[in-house]
Design goal:
By secondary structure, the chain is an alpha/beta fold. The protein is 41% helix and 16% strand. The chain contains 6 helices and 5 strands; from the N terminus they run E-H-E-H-E-H-E-H-H-E-H. The chain has a 5-stranded parallel β-sheet with strand order 3-2-1-4-5, sandwiched between helices. Strand 1, helix 1 and strand 2 form a beta-alpha-beta unit.
């Protein structure tokens, strides 16, 4: 079985997926669910959260709840809820996304699935900073980046601009 490893605590294989709430993370979720089903693996969806400047006055429990809700919403959008027939161990972690995902990878053959960035700007592009880059360099395991399809990219743009959905526009 390639791409997964035996979890020493459960004796099963694991597929870890980072969920940020973006459309590319939904594409990663589809891929990860398929891998977990194919290999009868435990699916580990991870939502990381941190306290930002604008969140300083919010209780930590509220920020953690929002991250948990992000997991629930991703599964609701992708599958109408958590898919049956899979063992799912969600993780909500108070950490930056890259380090949280690297820490979730515990076995030498764990499969880590991420949504690929659709666009990068200026200084970030020059520095090459991204969650995926962090994971590739520090996880020491297999990292799969799932690119959103052209439709997902168009839907993301539509969502940001408030324009009609491309398939519904006539």
């Amino acid at each position: 079985m390639t791409g997964t490893t035996t979890d020493p605590t459960t004796g099963t294989t694991r597929v870890i997926v980072g969920l940020s709430g973006s459309l590319s993370s939904l594409a990663a979720l589809y891929h990860a669910v398929g891998e977990a089903a194919r290999h009868e693996a435990v699916l580990v969806p991870v939502a990381a959260w941190t306290v930002g400047d604008k969140d300083g006055l919010r209780p930590l429990s509220e920020l953690e709840h929002a991250a948990r809700r992000r997991l629930d919403v991703a599964f609701e959008q992708a599958y109408g809820g958590y898919p049956s027939g899979l063992v799912i161990h969600p993780m909500v972690v108070n950490a930056e996304p890259g380090p949280a995902l690297v820490a979730a990878v515990t076995g030498p053959d764990d499969l880590l699935v991420l949504g690929a960035a659709t666009r990068r700007r200026g200084f970030d592009r020059l520095r090459g900073t991204s969650v995926a880059r962090h994971c590739r360099h520090r996880a020491g395991r297999r990292v799969v980046e799932v690119s959103p399809s052209a439709l997902l990219t168009r839907l993301e743009l539509t969502a940001r601009t408030g324009a009609p959905l491309p398939l519904l526009a006539r």
